[in-house]
Inverse folding.
């Protein structure tokens, strides 16, 4: 497929997990991808993999919680490729704890990284999308937005992502810019492996436990989330905006 031929995509948190899988998926369908992550070397490593596979990509180190760094990242993408057609806001962290034990610093870090960064990135690219009368923004929310013990900060941030998404869809829709969110359930990534260790388990045991309560009886792989992101970022979803799509194997 070449749904993204001549499209330029920015993927934040692109050095691993869902972000890396999304960068590979979009590049595999023809996009030139800016792989953005806090660690420039890891971003470039994913970009190098894409180029080795015959795609187009550049790795960019960027602290997406820093407005100046985000502006510089956007400028570099425009200087390199001349446009931004797709933005995937995937950067995120967890700092899990129960409410009564959670330090204010962990609340602030998760809200800033998981929500404020999306505001900054959307604000940085929207003027180019509006001028071009074309854009696709996909934000990563989570099933945790519905509430999850030990994740008051993460749940609040991911619920905020859904409000941000719905509002930007209203504001940017008249300029042919769609804004949607994907809310994964449990995905086999480094982040969920860290969660398993936090609760005294290991990734394999934790995944088996989650799978038992999931109708599909397994957890998701990053590529499965990337395929949904790619749909929402494509012209196949040209009349879909303001939506949050839960991708959780049917869990309730």
């Amino acid at each position: 497929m070449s749904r993204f031929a001549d499209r330029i995509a920015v993927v934040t948190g692109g050095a691993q997990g869902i972000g890396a899988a999304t960068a590979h998926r979009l590049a595999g369908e023809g996009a030139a991808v800016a792989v953005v992550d806090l660690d420039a070397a890891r971003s470039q490593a994913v970009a190098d993999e894409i180029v080795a596979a015959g795609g187009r990509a550049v790795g960019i180190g960027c602290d997406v919680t820093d407005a100046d760094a985000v502006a510089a990242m956007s400028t570099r993408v425009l200087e390199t490729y001349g446009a931004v057609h797709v933005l995937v806001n995937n950067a995120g962290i967890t700092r899990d704890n129960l409410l009564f034990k959670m330090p204010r610093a962990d609340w602030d870090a998760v809200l800033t990284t998981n929500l404020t960064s999306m505001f900054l990135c959307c604000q940085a690219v929207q003027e180019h999308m509006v001028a071009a009368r074309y854009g696709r923004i996909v934000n990563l929310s989570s099933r945790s937005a519905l509430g999850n013990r030990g994740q008051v900060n993460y749940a609040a941030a991911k619920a905020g992502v859904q409000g941000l998404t719905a509002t930007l869809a209203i504001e940017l829709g008249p300029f042919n810019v769609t804004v949607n969110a994907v809310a994964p359930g449990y995905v086999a990534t480094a982040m969920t492996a860290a969660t398993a260790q936090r609760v005294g388990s290991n990734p394999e045991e934790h995944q088996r436990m989650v799978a038992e309560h999931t109708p599909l009886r397994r957890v998701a792989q990053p590529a499965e989330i990337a395929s949904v992101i790619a749909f929402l970022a494509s012209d196949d979803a040209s009349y879909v905006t303001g939506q949050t799509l839960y991708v959780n194997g049917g869990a309730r």
